Amino acid sequence: MSSYPPPSIAFDPTMITTALELPGYRIVCNLGVVRGIVVRSRSIFGTFGAGLQTILGGNITLLSQLCEKTRQDAFAMMAQHAAEHGANAVISFRYDANELMQGVTEVLAYGTAVIVERTSQG
Q: What is the pTM of this model?
C-alpha cells in the first residue's frame, strides 16, 4: 500500500491534541476556532478500481488512501489557519465528514487555537 508524504505543518504537530489541555503547558490565550476544509470526489478510475476491490472483499485500499490523504490535507490546513492566528497549539481537535452529493465528500478538521507556554518544572 502506497502512502502519501505527510503534509507540511505550520508548527509542531505534537502541539495538536484532542484533549482540553496540553500536559506541561498552560494556556495563556484562547484564539478561537480554527478549521481546515477539503472537498474531494473520486475519479472515474478510482471509482472503477474501488468497485473491483469490493468484489474481492477486504480493505478498499484505493478509498482508504484517498480518505487518509484528505484527512492529512484538512489537518495541515487547520494547523496553517491556527498559525495564521498566532497560535502555537490546538486543543479539542476533531474531524468531521459529510457527503455533499454522491461521490463528493467534505472533510473538516477543527479545534481551538491557543497560545501556550511551558509550565515551570519544580
A: 0.77
